[in-house]
Structure formats: C-alpha cells, structure tokens
C-alpha cells in the first residue's frame, strides 16, 4: 500500500474509533507543523490499527487502554475509554481491565485509571441526559 493510502486508512480508522468531532477538533489547527504532527501521530498510532492482522479493533482498544493506564497517560486513557461504544469494548471488560492494570502495573496506576473511568462514565451519563 502506498504511503498516502496508508495514511488515508489510518485517518479513517481514527475517525471510526474516536469520532469525527474529536478528530476535527485536533486536526483543525492551520499551522503547518501542527498538521504535520497530526499526520505523524495518525500514521504511527492509527496506522497500526488499520494494518489488519490478528487483532480486532476491540482488542486493540483494550491494549491501548491498558498501556495508557500503565504509563499514567490519563488523557489518552480517558479518550479511549470514552470511545468504547465505537470500539466494542464493554463496561464489564473495561472494569476487568483495571484489575489487570492494578495487579501488573501497581495500585497507583489502577486507582488513577479507575478515577478517570469514573469521570468518563459520569460525562457519558450527562451527555445522555442532555440528549434526551
């Protein structure tokens, strides 16, 4: 696959998993360096999602959340936890994931991720109430 085709596939996967509103918000900066940075991030991070292989988007989502929680990257953890309706990860799977994080990465990582998940779920409930 040509580089531009790979980037287009990565862009499409990013939009499918995170939604148009989020992607539009982070790619709207007109500065050339910002656009180049977004293409780089999209190519590297989302290119691996779009490459196919044995892992489903659901599996990749679980892995990304485990890794971001383990690394203490709570902004990214929140982003991906909020995308679970699009990735196919269930609430029960995400709850179980946090036990794994706490056991293998330490209680502080698990506790931080649990707090972040609580915030994500509260925001989702609020959005549902406002949309009703």
TrEMBL record:
It comes from the Bacteria. InterPro entries: 4CMD/NDH-1_regulator, AhpD-like, CMD-like. Residues 36-119 form the Carboxymuconolactone decarboxylase-like domain. Transmembrane segments: none annotated. Pfam families: CMD. GO terms for molecular function: peroxiredoxin activity. PANTHER family: 4-CARBOXYMUCONOLACTONE DECARBOXYLASE FAMILY PROTEIN, CARBOXYMUCONOLACTONE DECARBOXYLASE-LIKE DOMAIN-CONTAINING PROTEIN. This is Carboxymuconolactone decarboxylase family protein. It comes from Streptomyces himalayensis subsp. aureolus.
């Amino acid at each position: 696959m040509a580089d531009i085709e790979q980037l287009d596939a990565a862009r499409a996967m990013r939009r499918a998993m995170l939604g148009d509103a989020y992607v539009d918000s982070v790619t709207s900066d007109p500065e050339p360096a910002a656009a180049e940075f977004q293409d780089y991030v999209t190519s590297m991070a989302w290119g691996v999602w779009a490459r196919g292989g044995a892992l489903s988007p659901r599996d990749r989502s679980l892995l990304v959340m485990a890794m971001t929680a383990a690394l203490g990257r709570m902004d990214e953890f929140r982003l991906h936890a909020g995308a679970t309706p699009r990735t196919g990860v269930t609430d029960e799977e995400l709850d179980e994931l946090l036990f794994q994080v706490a056991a293998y990465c330490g209680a502080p990582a698990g506790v931080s991720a649990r707090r972040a998940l609580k915030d994500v779920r509260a925001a989702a409930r609020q959005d549902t109430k406002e949309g009703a």
